[in-house]
Amino acid sequence: MTPPSTARVVYLIARLSARRFTNRIAALRARRPKVPPGPRSPSPVHGPGQRSATARKPATGRLLLAFLGVIFVFQTVTATTRLVHQAAQYAERNAVGERVLIDEASYWRLHSASPEELAEEVDGLVARERSQLEDEPAREAREQQLRRAFREHGLEGFRQSELPLIALWPDSELWYSGDDPLAMLRPLAFVAFLLGVAQLLQHVAGSDDDLARVSASLEWLFTFPVRPRSLFLARALAAVFTGPLLWVLICPFYAVLFWCSGYGALGIPLAVLAALYVALLGGGLRVLLESSLRRYLPLVWVARVQAALLTLSAVAMVGGVAVAYARQSTWAFEWTARLPQAAFYLPPCLPAWLVVGGQPALLAGLASTLFAVGWLGFCIWSAEQMVRGGISSGSGPYLARRGSGAELPASTGQFRLGALVQKELRALFRDRRLRTQAFVTPCFVFGLQLWINPRLLHDISGNPRHVATAAFAVSAFALTTGACNALATEGAALWMLYTLPERLERLLLEKLWVWLGVAYLFGAGFLALVWARAPQLIVPSLPYAVFAMVGVYIYAVIALGIGSLGTDPLEAEPRRRIRPGSLYLFMSLAGLFAYAIYAPSLWTKFVQLVLSALLAFALWQKLRDHLPFLLDPTEAPAPQIAVADGVIAALGFFVLQGVFVLLFAERDGAQGRALLLGFSTAGVAVTALSLFAFRRSGVPRLWRVLGLSRPAASGSRALQVGLGVLGGLLAGLLGIGYRLLAEHVPWLAELFEQASSLLPGEEQGLPWWFIGLTLLAAPVFEEFIFRGILYRGLRRSLRGPLAVLASALVFALVHPVVAALPVFVMAVVAAAAYERTGWLATPIAVHMTYNALVLGSAFL
Questions:
Q1: Which end of the chain is more exposed for a tag (fewer CB within 10 A), N or C?
Q2: What are the Cα distances from residue 388, in Å, to 104, 220, 463?
Q3: Residue 400: which H helix or E strand, with range?
Q4: What DSSP character marks residue 181?
Q5: Integer distance in angstroms from the first to the last C-alpha of the chain?
Q6: Is residue 37 predicted with pLDDT exceeding 80?
Q7: What pairs with residue 101 in β-bridges?
Q8: What integer pLDDT is reported at residue 574 of this predicted model?
Q9: In this structure, are 246 and 387 located in the same domain?
């Protein structure tokens, strides 16, 4: 057949890239049809609602990515607007010389004031200007400037600014058109250069393809009977759809510049053209490097060059964003003013010349077009010359030394790191992508924050709790780049871990030790930085720091659980193996732990710590259920009741209880009846939803597992209920004794008085709603949640005594601190009775009897 023309090849491959792009966008709202519960048919013909065995394609992560893309565009627009405003202010200050610029309102207040009021107005101006600055040296410098201008020149020392005081959104009023046409161009072109270089290098070195090997897509394209130049041209043009920063950073950045410089709505299509120009530069550079580096460099050096380019991309990105976001960018503006004009003729700066307008803008547009065409032609011609003899695989292999078996050390019984720990450490220090992700990215992120806001470190050093919270935040962010990706780094090699004679969860714990060490390294480094700056904070912040590091250990397990559950090891693209929503979910949960650091009560800290540990245990149990099925996309673990189900049910119960109590209180105004109705309605709702969810998921023998049906071999009903009443009497008597003993402890007696104030008044008698709440609603619904669901989930992974103590501890924590100890004893008795009989009526009887004794005695 006749080979297709170059235009036809470019069109087909462009359509392929566009279709991949639109498919990903369409997946934001497309839902995958689910296989109905029940046995799957072995027939290859699938009925309605069934599908063949393919890997998971969750849409939630893509939807979150789209939402984050919108947020990123919004941030780019606001940051660029601020940058334009600061550049205009700088240009205007240079244009007016020694005069001091003030806003319009202040200018006219000075000129309309009488001579007697003028000094007072100047004082008011100084106060207003000082209040707008956060740094004390900047406040002092501004005050001296204002007073010196008034003292030396009077009213002539001030000039009204032509710019608005605040810049919130792009507007042509933000642009300063002075005598120097390059005054605005220089700082803006400098940022455009940094962002353009970041996009170019990110497209070349930051993609999933390794420059040290021929990508599978390029091998596939070379099987077509077309000329290499057509393939390379199409591959370069595909950068329009694959540039990671193109449409969320470069295009919005230029759109704001062109809009503010006077183009208005025309600036948007001009910004699209500028983004396409940057994309073509990156596409040509990618084609040139992936064909030439393998030819002239050993493969190991190709990987090193790619790592260096990726680092330079991060540096350019951080520099551009830092200048755009910094509150005071005067140093950057002064530096660009000293650069020669020829520096702004560099290719990444050419689109920025459009802001000058007139003939320079026309010449810049023409130069950009000619350079893009010439650059693409040169890159494609060079690449075609490189592959005249076929696709080059490199001028040398990776070199490694393989030791002999005799070199292996004999076992001496001394401590040695586990094999998986050693493997993880070697990967951490050998893999450029993993190393950059684990060490470079956190350093850049937090270094950028300190650069943009220099007072941040000073503010953190002002409070011991701030120090501990910031150290925890640094460590938690390190966990997102490490522990959350523990399974994602294995990829297709995950099956090898299944062949080892160890349980996979134990191997994951070994991997976790490495990433926990990395997180502690960042936390300790930050503490050392703050303590070196403020040694007086070492002693006050040390207890909070220890508490924060304990939280880091717990949240390392949470990060491993959330990240592993959100990982698809069958995904071919490494950066898409883990769902972005998992990372943001972990960061949201980690943010909740900061509340415990600031909580004034030790009891609140303890409660937060225990609940976090319970969450970690729940996620770990869920992960253990899913580990055997990670490599089979069509299978899932057998449905069982888990700790996570108990945690969700408990949280839902307390949230719904508060909502329903408010609704009933607003309707009839009776607080006691509203409390009973709200409590009961929430309990019924949670019970019904839990049963529906368990039934729908197919939990076998559901009524027996939850204890709603009595086991036949557990004895008579009367005996089981009597056992509960006896246990309740014992726990109730201990509770009454605790109350009598507390009367002799002042702080306990005060807490009891506060709790007693919530009970009905003695003159009202014992109301019916109080009896219904304490003797019926609370025992039934709380025992169903904490014993029927939570204890059953704990019992799956813990022995009986440990499960009893754990469930009792959680139950005690959700009660007031003054009642925690007797409630804990009652919960231990209730859980032990439930373990003995397997029927939920027994712990309900324990709970009813206990409430009748303790609350009845407290009322009397």
A1: N
A2: 68, 17, 66
A3: none
A4: T
A5: 100
A6: no
A7: 159
A8: 66
A9: yes
Residues 6+ apart with CB under 8 A from 617: 643, 794, 797
Report the pLDDT value the prediction gives residue 463, as an integer from 0 to 100: 86
Q: Is 270 exposed, middle or buried (0-12, 13-18, 19+ CB in 10 A)?
A: buried
Mean per-residue pLDDT over the chain, rounded: 80
Count of residues making up the chain: 860
Contacts of 436 (CB under 8 A, 6+ apart): 307, 310, 311, 314
For residue 215, give Cα distances in angstroms to 64, 210, 437, 493.
29, 7, 22, 19
Tell which of 587, 604, 637 closes a domain.
Answer: 637
Same domain as 461, residue 600: yes
Asked if residue 289 and residue 335 are part of one domain, the reply reads yes
This prediction's pTM: 0.66
Q: What is the pLDDT of residue 446?
A: 78
Asked if the structure places residue 14 within a domain, the reply is no
Q: Evaluate whether 444 touches 318 at the Cβ level (below 8 Å).
A: yes
Q: Residue 829's closest CA among 852, 845, 813, 810? A: 845
Sign of the CA dihedral with 587 first, then 592, 595, and 596 last: negative
In whole angstroms, give the CA distance from residue 361 to residue 355.
7
Whether 385 and 471 share a structural domain: no
- Amino acid of residue 214: V
The pLDDT tens digits for 426-442 are 888 777 677 777 887 78
* Residue 596: partners with Cβ closer than 8 Å, 6 or more residues away: 547, 551, 604, 605, 608, 609, 612
- Is residue 787 packed enough to be buried (19+ CB in 10 Å), middle (13-18) or exposed (0-12)? buried
Are 257 and 338 within one domain? Answer: yes
**Residue of 363, 29, 326, 93 lying closest to 190 (CA atoms):** 326
On whether the CB atoms of residues 597 and 590 are closer than 8 A, the answer is: no
The residue range of the domain holding 732 is 710-859
3-state helix, strand, coil in the chain (%, to 5): 75, 0, 25
847, two tokens: 């709970």
Please give the helix or strand (H or E) that residue 395 lies within, else none: none
The whole-angstrom separation of Cα 722 and Cα 701 is 26
Name the residue with tokens 């020669």: 340
Name the nearest CA neighbour of 578 among 508, 444, 509, 482: 482
* Structure confidence at residue 486 as a pLDDT band (50, 70, 90): confident
Percent of the chain scoring above 90 in pLDDT: 23
Distances (CA, A) of 537 to 238, 410, 471, 532, 595: 55, 48, 14, 9, 20
Same domain, 230 and 319: yes
Q: Which of 613, 637, 661 is the last residue of a domain?
A: 637
Minimum mean pLDDT among 341-350, 448-457, 507-516, 720-729: which range? 448-457
The residue behind tokens 């009488």 is 114
Beta strands in 270-380 (DSSP E): none
In a domain, 736, yes or no: yes
What's the pLDDT tens digit per position in 224-275?
Answer: 777 888 888 888 888 887 776 788 889 999 999 999 998 988 999 999 999 9
Residue 666: C-alpha distances to residues 154, 311, 673, 758 (Å): 64, 60, 12, 19
Determine, yes or no, domain membership for 58. no
Q: Count of domains in the chain? A: 4
Q: Is 610 exposed, middle or buried (0-12, 13-18, 19+ CB in 10 A)?
A: middle
**DSSP assignment of 33-82:** PPPPSSPPP-SSS--TT---S-----SHHHHHHHHHHHHHHHHHHHHHHH
Backbone angles phi, psi at 638, to 5 degrees: -60, 140
Within a domain: 665? no
Domain match, 384 and 503 both: no
3-state secondary structure of 160: strand
- Checking if the pLDDT of 399 tops 80, the result is no
Residues 832 and 768 in one domain: yes
Task: Give the model's confidence band at 603: pLDDT under 50 very low, under 70 low, under 90 confident, else very high.
Answer: confident
State the residue for tokens 């996979």: 504
Residue with tokens 């393809």: 209
